[in-house]
Amino acid sequence: xxxxxxxxxxxxxxxxxxxxxLNVIWGWSGDFxxxxxxxxxxxxxxxxxxxxxxxxxxxxxxxxxxxxxLVALAGAVVSSALMGLIVGLIALRHLRGIYFSIVTLGAVYxxxxxxxxxxxxxxxYNGLFGLFNPMxxxxxxxxxxxxxxxLGFCLFIFILVFIFMARVSGSRFxxxxxxxxxxxxxxxxxxxxxxxxxxxxxxxxxxxxGLAGGLFxxxxxxxxxxxxxxxxxxxxxxxxxxxxxxxxKGVVLGVVVMAMVVQESTRYLNDVPGLPIAFLLSLREIVIxxxxxxxxxxxxxxLLPERRYVDRxxxxxxxxxxxxxLSRGLAAFNRxxxxxxxxxxxxxxxxxxxxxxxxxxxxxxxxLEVTADVPVSRPLAQERPGVPTSVSxxxxxxxxxxxxxxxxxVDRCSFRAQKGQVTGLIGxxxxxxxxxxxxxxxxxxxxxxTVFFEGTAIQGLPPHRISxxxxxxxxxxxxxxxxxxxxxxxxxxRWDPEREALWRSLIGPGLTQRSTSKSELGRAxxxxxxxxxxxxxxERAGNLSGGQKRLVEFARIRMAEPQLVILDEPMxxxxxxxxxxxxxxxxxxxxxxxxxxxxEHNLPFIERVAHQVIVMSQGAVIATGxxxxxxxxxxxxxxxxxxxxx
Amino acid sequence: MNQILLTLGFGLVTAAILSLSAVAFTLExxxxxxxxxxHGEILTIGAYAAYLVHRSTGNAFLAAxxxxxxxxxxxVAMHITVxxxxxxxxxxxxxxxxxxxxxxxxIQNVLVIIFGAANVAYTIPQGDPHQVGPFLWTSVxxxxxxxxxxxxxxLYVIITHTKFGKALRAVFQxxxxxxxxxxxxxxxxxxxxxxxxxxxxxxGFILAESVGTFNPYFGFxxxxxxLTATVAGGLxxxxxxxxxxxxxxxxxxxxxxxxxxxxxxAFAFAILAIIILVRPxxxxxxxxxxxxx
Lengths: 646, 293
Fold this sequence. Notes:
The structure holds two protein chains of two kinds. Chain A has 28 helices and twelve strands. By secondary structure, chain A is α/β, with parallel strands linked by helices. Chain A has three domains: 2-228, no CATH class; 233-307 and 329-347, no CATH class; 380-483 and 557-641, 3-Layer(aba) Sandwich (Rossmann fold), CATH 3.40.50.300. In chain A, a hairpin with a 2-residue loop joins β3 (393-404) and β4. The longest helix of chain A has 27 residues, at 2-28. Chain B is mainly alpha-helical. Chain B has one domain. Chain B is globular, with a radius of gyration of 19 Å. The termini of chain B are far apart.
C-alpha cells in the first residue's frame, strides 16, 4: 500500500511539472500546442541516451555517454527547449488558432515517426532501457529505500517548479503573456513583440516538458514508442482545464483530480470480476475525453478560475477575491448557480452606469486641472489660434500606396500632422482612412511610400517597434484585454523592457523597479479616477459597456504617454455625454504633449477638437486645412455627397 | 517510365480516398467553422460498419451503404450533441476544436471496448490487376476511383446547383447574416454534417478495403494525412480541398515508393509545414502571410 502511494505521488509530481509547463503555453500565452508531449518524450529519450552505456548490438542508438543523471537531466531540458525553439520559430511566426495546432500536431508526429522508424537514433520500436535508480548507487540506497528517495527528489523539483511558476505568474512577464492571449493586436499596439514573447513562453514550456520527461524516464527506467503517444497531451489538457487554465494552483488541483484520482480509481475496477483489463484502460480514457468536453461546455474556467490582481483601494478594503480557498470556491459556486435575473441585477450594480452629466462635473476631476485654462465648451482650435508656424511635423506621410488585388485602397496618399495639434482625418466610407492607419502603424505593409515619425522613417517596421518609438494607435472596435482587470489594462499600456524580462520574474523586482511599480500604480489609479473608472479598477475589462471600454482605451493612452496617438473612430457607438468626456480627454492628450490624429465620421466632433483636417477620398488626400475652410471646398462636398463614381 | 506510371496509378487511388475524406472534413468545417479532430473516427466507424454488414450479408455493395449510413448517423450525432451546442453558445473556435479532440478520444476507446484494439482483417478479393490506360489497377481500385469521381460529381451538383448548396455556402461566408436572411442555420449544419458523414463513412470503407486491415485508431492516422491535404488545398473550400488531396496523395505515393513508406506521416507533415509557411490559407487561396493581414 505504501509502495503504491509512493508510486502515484511520484507520478503525480512528474505530471504536475508537465502540466505546469504546458500551462505556460496554453494557460498564459494562449496557444493550443499539440506538440507538447513530444517535448516530454524527447526529454525522456535524451536522458536515457545520455545516462546509459554504449549500445550492445543488435541495439542501436546515439550517444550512450554514461553521464551523471543530473547532467543528463540538464541535457534533456536543453534538447527539448531547442526542439521547442525550432517548432516555435516555424509555427508561431504566422500561425495562430487551429493552424498553429495543426502544425504542432504535425511536428510531434514527425518526432514520433522518426523515433519509431529511424533505428540508429533511439533504437526504433525497441526503445531504450537501462536507467536503474539514478543517483541511488552514489547515495548508497538499496532498491527498497530508493523509491522514497526518488519521490522526495521529484517532489523537491516539483516544488521548485511551482515556486518558479508562481513568480512568473505574478510578474510583468506573466501579465504581458496574458495580454497576448487576450488580444494580440492590442499587445502589439502597446509595444509587445508578440512573436518574441510567444516564442519565449513556448521554449520555456518545452523546457519544462523536457525536465518532466527526464524524471519520467528515470521513473520508468525505460522509454519506447509504445510508452507514449502524441495524443497523450490530452490528459494534460484535461487536467489543466478541470483545475483552472492559467491558475497554477488550479493546474495542480487538476493534476490531482485527473492524473491521480481518475487514473487510480479505475484500478479498483479490477476487483469487479469479469472485466478485462483493456476495458479499464479504455474506460479511463473515455472519462478523460468526456471530462474535457463537459468542462469546455459547462465550466471552461475550471474549478479554480484564474485570479486577477485585486487592487485594494483605501476606501474599499473588502477584498472581493480574498478569503480562504473554500469560501472563494463557495462564492464562485453561488455566483454560478444564482438565478439569472438575480445575476443580471448584480452585474448592473457592479458595473456602475456611466456618470450622468452632473456627476461628471460634481467631483473635481484631476483631468480638469490639467486643462483648467481651456473653457470646456469652446473649441480647442479657437482657443489656440496662434499655433506657431515653426512647429515641426509629428508625422509626415508621403506617397503611401496599398492595393488589395485590384482594389487600390490607399493611392499615393500624402499628408503631415503637426506636433502639439489635433489632426482630423475624415472622408466617406471606403476612403482608405483605416487602411492608411494600418499602414502607418505597421499593421499592414505598404506597397510604396514613406512615413516619417519625428523625423525617423518608420515604414516597414513591425507594429511594436513603431509603438515603442512613441506612436500608438487605437482600433475601430475597442480592443481591451477582456480577461484582465481595468487596472491591469492601464498598467500594461506602459511597455517596460526591464521589468518585463523573464529573468526579472526569477530574481524579483529591484529597488528602483519597486518604486517605479509603486509610482506607476499610483499614476494608473489617478488616470482611472480622471476617467471616472475608479469604481471599476478590479472589474474585468471584458465586462464593461462599449463606452466604458472606450474610456479604458483612452486611459491606456494617457498611461502610455506617446508622442503621437492615432485614434480610429473613437466616437463609434458613443453617447453624447461620453463624447464630451472624450473631447476633454483629447485636450488632455495635447496638454500632456501627445499629438493626436483622429479618424472620425462625427463631423461636429472633428470641428470641435481638430486644428487641421485632412480629407481623404478614394485612397488619396483631396483637401487639407482648418475645418471652416473645407465647408466651401467643392471636392470635399462632392466626396461626401456621393459624386464619386462607384 | 513504367515505374513512374505505376506509382502514379497508386497515387491516384490514394488521392481518391483522400479526396473523399478531405472534402467531408472541409464541409464540416465550412458550416460550423470547426476543424473536427474526430473526423477520423467517422472513417473508422464506417470501416467497422462495412465489415459487420459484409460479414453478415456477404455483399460489398450493402457494406458500402452500411458504411455511409453509419458515418452519416455518427456525424449528425456529433453535430447535434456537441458541436452545434458549442457553436450556438458562441464559445469560440478553439474550445470547440479542443472538444472534438475529446470526442475522438471517447469514440476510439468505445470502439476498443466493443471490438478490441487488435487489427481486424478485412480482405476482399481484389481481382487481378489489369491495364487501364497507362495504369495498372485491380477492379477494386477501379471501383474506388470511379466511385470517388461519381461522389465528387454529385457533391458538385449539390453545392453549386441546389438551394441547399446555396444555403451551405451562405452559412460558410457569414453565419449570422445567413440566419437573419431566414436560413435555418442549424438544419443546414446538421444536413451538411450528415452529408459529410455519408462521404466520410464511405471513405472509411474504401480505405479499409484497400488497406486490408484496420483497428480503432485507423481513422485517426489517416485523418492526419487528410488534415495535410485539406489545409494544403484550403480549409472550407470543397473543391480546392480535393485538388489538395490529389496533390498530397500523389506526392505521398512517390515519396513512399522512392524513399520509404514508413515515413509517410512525416513526409505528409513536412509538406504541410512548407505549404503553411508559404501560403497559410492553402495553395489555391490568395491571402497575406502576416498575422495581422
